[in-house]
Amino acid sequence: MDFSGRLGGRYGGGAQRDVDEFGRERRGRPHQRKPYERPNRGFRGGAHGGGPMGQPDEGKDIESRLSSLIVKVGDKNTPTLQNNLDALSVVLEKDYAKHEATVLRTFRQCVLELPWKVTVYATLAGLLNAKNSDTGAKVVTLMHGILRRELAAGDWSSVKVLMRFFALLVGTNTISAATLLAMLDAFLAPVASAPPSSQSRCYVHIAMSTLLWAGRLLKEAAPAELDARLRAVEQYMQRDREAMQGSTLATIFHDAPPKGPNALAHQLEVLRTVAANEWRIDAVFAPHEMFGTEFVQATQHELPALELPTGLPPSAFRTPPEFLQLVPSPAEHAVRRYVLQDLIADTLSQLEYNRKDCARYLLQIHGLCNEDVCSVMTTAQHPEDADPETSLVFEYMVAEVLFTFLLQLPEGRSREMYYTSLAIELRKAEPQIMAGVLETAVENIVARAASLDVECINRLSNWLAVYVSNFGFQWDWAKWESVTEEPEGAPRRRFVQETLLKLVRLSYLDRIKAHLPESCLSLVPAKVPAHNFKFTVQAMDERTREVSVALGKCLKSKGTVEQAMEILQTHYSQWVDVDDDARQALAREMLVEHVLLLGSKTFSHMLNAIEKFMPALQQFGDTPEAKLQIARVVEDFWLRNPQFCAITIDKLVNYRIIDPVTVIELLFDASHAGSWSSFHLWEILRNTVNKVDMRVVQLQTRLEAARAAADAIVVDDTGDADGDGDGSTDAPEQPPSRPAGENVEHVQSILTQMEREQKEVVVQTARYFVQLLSSDDGTADEMDRTWLLGRFKEFMRTYRAQVAANAAELESQVFTAAASPDTREVFAGTRALAA
Fold first, then answer.
1. Which stretches does UniProt call biased (Acidic residues) (predicted)?
2. DSSP secondary structure of 122-182
3. Phi then psi dihedrals of residue 117, to 5 deg
4. Quick one: pLDDT at residue 718?
């Protein structure tokens, strides 16, 4: 949503001006606009000037001020907040008729995008309703319409915030308790008897969130109905706990006691604690309690029934994980901690489109807290005095929520890069404070790496590499010197090692070495990542050298595909002591090695080389065995450069020189036993499977377009040329226009083929995992097996929809009695997670 700059600025009396290095205010003109290119120059009034003599439009100025007032109100819990809200409601009520669209648009945006101030905006809506019920009705109707729209779109984060808003409206007497209960029933009725699923968990999560904020109001207005809804939640949670008993597929730390879906279980514990305390929440200021007398005579509004969406896939329903506790905090503050982290999480989700605004607002949330709820390092005179063991430290809670979302399982809400860029903005906003906070959080996570899910180790490594690269690669690596004494595949050592390898990708080896203590140099390659060309002069016999030199000269002098193939044919046809298959394999290896060498300088060179010699490579890769040989040559060539290896294989799959099943066969080769902790193997696997899935989705879209085009032709053939439905023509007769489209049968045939390949990829990958994990020879030792099992969990969790779609075949062919118990347990957990 566009705030037209309102949410991007600074508010309050301490606002900072945008000035240059000489203290002069900057001119607000677009990038590269010259001073003489001002929009109003040379015009007197009219559309360009806005008013007489180019003066600004007074109406637009008023709208801008109204929007600014709505956005700024309630930034902090100050003694003047009551007066500010009352005065703002008077201003809005007075100007509402003239600027209705602006007020409603801004109000909608503020509720959705500033979710930690929902108590303020619910109070403001109540005051508007108390002063003018018609205005209140329009605000409530608008927000209810937005709620229905977000429901239809499956935006559960927005739905949760909006339900909290309506819960607080009960306290302003704008809607009745019965109306809110009916809204709650829309979420609880479908889960009363339904089996636990991602959809029902999502509904229960929203219901519990609403009850947390509405509990005190419902306790006064409808205590029996409140108890009934709470019992419904508890009954569902009991069923859900039994369904997910013992599963660790969605657990970030595996040493945590399994308790089903952790987020919901923890949320229920908080709900019970608040209920035992008369449903009182004291973490955030509730301004509606100051206006009790104003709300008594207010008009209550009825709302239409909610309709939950149908037909959404299970992956569309998400619940957040239990918030990580990375620093110790007092147990007696558990409810306050949950409430604040929930508001931080909502803000982080709702502002994901703008990391800069999100970082700024995250650091403002504490302003609405009640006194002594938390300590704030960024406003303290001595930040180092903040002790997490005696009080809630706000900045640590922000970091905990950020890493909770980064490591969320089964998948994150947003891309990993969002959380990296957000952390960078947080550190830029408060460099002295947030740098230490984020470093402490990472160290505490890595200290528990032995119990951290393998996929989460991978994500944190990616996060840290990009984060550190944005601050001159500065990090206190000396704190991790002890990892050099750990075994090669130990989780902490592997995390540090893979992070350093990513930093080498983002910079260069010597620069990274310069930032490391000498004791850590063993964690990075001794030499710069390079290729491993097989046909060096010293390693060849005379006749092999002749072929290699001739082919090398041809490629370097920009020879054609035909010339290269002729050289190979001419030379290898003379090797009469070698059979045809062996000669073909030798020629194939020679060509692939030289093409890779030709493109070894940069990514662009590699792509150009592959594209140029694609016909020859496709000709050589005419059998599954030939494709596998090409893939193995690529892996050997880039043995010391995993990044180039992954990119080259990805492009060979793109050009169909090798196929996805070939890549899977390569990755699960027995030669990799002992190296299952290497991250680049699983990067290649993810890229390959994702590519197959993406092709299926693209073909499904093409098929829908082709069918739509075919339907358009059928409609056009009915003779309704003017499209008004009466079969008449208002224009001179012309040949019927036929929309350009693809042949439906052709696209359907390709889609069927790709769906068959998608199924083969999933089944074959699962089969290889199970074979290796169920055999003593599949892994080098117990630590190696732990890494492989972790990657198996990651694969099954990530592609759970495809696993569920092929569950019958997997159960009969892969997860048989011969499979190890832990692999069968993962399969059962995957099916439950995909429900």
1. 717-727
2. HHHHHHHHHH-HHHHHHHHHHHHHHHHHHHHHT-HHHHHHHHHHHHHHGGGTSS-HHHHHH
3. -100, 25
4. 54
Model confidence at 546: pLDDT above 90 = yes
Mean pLDDT of 547-555: 94
Within 8 A by CB and 6+ apart from 448, the residues are: 253, 255
Nearest to 408 by CA among 495, 323, 316, 313: 323
CA distance 177 to 171: 9
**Cβ-contact 370, 282 below 8 angstroms:** yes
Per-residue exposure over 380-404, b if at least 16 CB sit within 10 Å of its own CB, e if not:
eeebeebebeebbbbbbbbbbbbbb
The identity of residue 136, as a single letter, is G
Question: What's the token pair of residue 809?
Answer: 């075949």
Residue 764 burial (10 A CB sphere; 0-12, 13-18, 19+): middle
> How far is residue 543 from each of residues 498, 548, 552, 577, 813, measured CA to CA in Å?
42, 9, 14, 13, 48
Tokens of 40: 């109003």
> Does the pLDDT value for residue 773 go beyond 50?
yes
Closest CA relative to residue 328, chosen from 398, 394, 392, 399 = 392
pLDDT tens digits, 647-679: 999 999 999 999 999 999 999 999 999 999 999
Residue 781 to residues 264, 674, 775, 786, Cα–Cα distance (Å): 37, 7, 12, 9
CATH number assigned to the domain covering 60-296: 1.25.40.180
Give the side-chain half-sphere CA count within 13 A for 61: 6
Token match 């060539």: residue?
A: 637
Would you state the pLDDT for residue 59? Answer: 60
Q: What is the dihedral of CA 374, 378, 384, 386, to 10 degrees?
A: 0
- Residue 629: CB partners within 8 Å, gap ≥ 6? 585, 588, 589
Burial class of residue 304 in the structure, from the number of CB atoms within 10 Å of its CB (0-12 exposed, 13-18 middle, 19+ buried): exposed
In single-letter form, the type of residue at position 300 comes to Q
Position 151: which residue type?
Answer: L
What's the pLDDT at 684? 96
**Is the pLDDT reported for residue 86 higher than 50?**
yes
Q: What is the DSSP string of 571-607?
A: HHTT-TTS-HHHHHHHHHHHHHHHHHHHT-S-HHHHH
Residue 782 in this model has a pLDDT that exceeds 80? yes
CATH classification for the domain delimited by 331-379+388-523, as one of 1.20.140.10, 3.40.50.1000, 3.90.1640.10, 1.25.40.180: 1.25.40.180
Q: Which residues contact 346 (CB under 8 A, 6 or more apart)?
A: 115, 116, 157, 160, 161
Nearest partner of 163 among 229, 224, 97, 223, judged by Cα? 229
